[in-house]
Every structure is written in structure tokens, then in C-alpha cells.
Here is the input.
Amino acid sequence: SSLGSKLFLVETYTNLVPCGFFYHQATFLDKVGVISEVHLLRVMMETIPPLKDSRLLIKDLRFERVKVRIYQLKTSNKNLRRGILYFHGGVGRFGSYKPSLTYPLSKGIYTLDSIVVNSSVSYTCRYRLAPEHPYPAQFEDCLTATIHFLRTAQDHGVDPSRIVICGDSSGGTLTAAVAQALVNRRDLPKLRAQILIYPFLQCVDLNLPSYQQNKGVPILLKERTLVLGLKYINMDLGITEEIFKGCHVSEDRRLKYQKWVSPDYIPHEFKTRGYKPSPTCLPSKEFCEMAEYLFDPVFAPLLAEDSVIAQLPETFILTCEFDVLRDDGLLYKKRLEDHGIKVTWCHLQEGFHGTVFVALFGRVLGFRSGAKGLQKIVNFLRLM
Here is the structure.
């Protein structure tokens, strides 16, 4: 079938990506006690050569305690420019700043005249990584870097009113959480916009249509999504099945969150590939107490209060059809729009989780969906 062919291509090629192909080997070696999964993945990510361009000045510095990498045109411009602050994915535990999305975005410098700041970090630092630095150290570093940049933007030739924060996957989660943390800061310039690329945003319902339809699609399988998330916040993996069933959500929370997290808010066209309503699980007091972190808006930004959502900046959200996190993006889009926030939505009909990252490698591994996504992001930035 056409769908079967698409899924075959997705599985075949995404497993060539370090975070997909190497994950299986890393998991196996971890289970047999050779090397921990997270350390092996970090080493493998570090083997990716840094992206370079002779037209750009690329330098490392610190925003307070956080290391950042700045990409800037070698030819100076006396006018204040827009700035982009980027957070990489990796579930707070691995990832590399070297092949980050800021590089292809930095190509937009030639037309956008931007300074692109990468506060994504390798395991050596940049934002600190778990488990050595437990959650929420990653959020704290991203928030620190953002506040510093907002305060010192003009020192970097950036207009403080034209700063955009951006992230992919868990980096999108961090982006959303940082934007929320800043809404009541009257001592800082307002963010111009936020860009969320297939973000993880909630752990209330892991049986939404996208989770059911894409549970076996690499690189982010349904079970892997939860396992990596629980490892990130240092939670017991033994409650995985109970979370899938929804036994971790108390009645009070269920009543509160059902107005934000429900398959009823997913448009019908996203259910045509299959969806079966899940039976409601009776909550367990023990599991509800163990899962307290899962409802923290820093970990699950979709669960922020309405008073916070209503103050967020203009937003770009990218979702992919073949991604368990697709519906998180759709639900956040609805919440923002319900509060009058301007949202630009890009849905990649043939996209999968990680497709924009894969686009960094161009003709070697690139997909049209990833290239399309990057172009849409650049087009959005042109308006900032």
C-alpha cells in the first residue's frame, strides 16, 4: 500500500540517523552492561563533524554559566538585527550543538541579516545534561541564557524586541517552557516569537490518535517516548504501563485537564488512519503521587494555566504526520488560538519525528519534508 511504502521508507532511512540507528545498538550494549546507553549516544553524536561556513564568524562564549555558540556574518551591519536563540533536542540527556538547526537557519542570515545564537549544548556543557544534572537543570540553563540575551542583546548587535526562541523535540518543550516563564517579567523585553518543532508537551494522555497511529514509527516509538521522558526526570520505569493506561491521573486532574487534553479536540482528518477511544482507568493514589512531576508545566507546557497561555508571543508550530507527538502540537495550537495568540502552523504530511534534523545532512540523508519544514521556518523568520 501507499501508506505501507511511506512507513517502510521512514523506518529504513531514519534508522540511518544517529539518534535512530545508533539507539538500538546503544540500548543493547546498555542491557548487557558494556556501556550506558546515554554515554554511548553522546559519544556517537560527538562524532558528527561541526558544520562550517567561511562566510560566517562562529565563536563560543558564555551567557552567564551557560556556554553558547554564536553564528554571525563576517561583514558587519551597524543596524540592530533580529536574534534567534535555539535549544536542541535529546530529551535533556544527549544531543550535540555541532550539527544543530541553527546552522541551516543561519543561512537565512544572508537574507534575514540575523545573528543566530546556539545555546544548544554538547554533553560537555552548554545546557547541562541529565542524569548528572537532574531535571530541571536543563530548563534553568535555557532560561538563564534567554534572560541574559534579552538583557544584553544590543551588545551583540541584536534588537531586543526581535528575539525569537526556537527548539526541536525536547528542545521545543524547553522553548515553550521558557516562553511561559517569561510572560510576567516586566523587567525584560518581550520575546518576538517562539518556534516549536515537533515538541513534546504533555503526559496526561499517551493514547491520542497520533500515539496509536505512530506507535511503531522510528525514531520515536511510543514506548521509547515515555521511557526517555521518565529517565529524564529520574522516575521509576516500573510505572510505564500504568501511565499508558492513564492510572497516574487523579480524578481532580482529569477534570481539570480534559478541557485542554482530549482526542475530541483533534480534527477528524487526523483520525482517519485509525483511532480507538481508550477505556478510562481508575486512578491509583500511589501512581498519582509518583507521577507528580509529569504535570509540571516545565515538563509539560500544554498544562500551563490559561493566564499564562494568554500572554504568550506569536508562535510557529511544526508537526509531522508520522510522529507520536503530532497531536501535542495540534492541542497546543488550539489552546493558543483559543486565547487569541497568532499561530503559524506547518504540518508535514510525509514528515516523521526528526525529519528537520535529517535535513541538515542534505543530499546524504535529507528528505523533502525536512527541507520544506526548514524553508517554512525561514519564511516565518522573515516576518520577525
About this structure: Confidence is low (pLDDT under 50) at residues 4-19, 118-125. The longest helix spans residues 137-152.
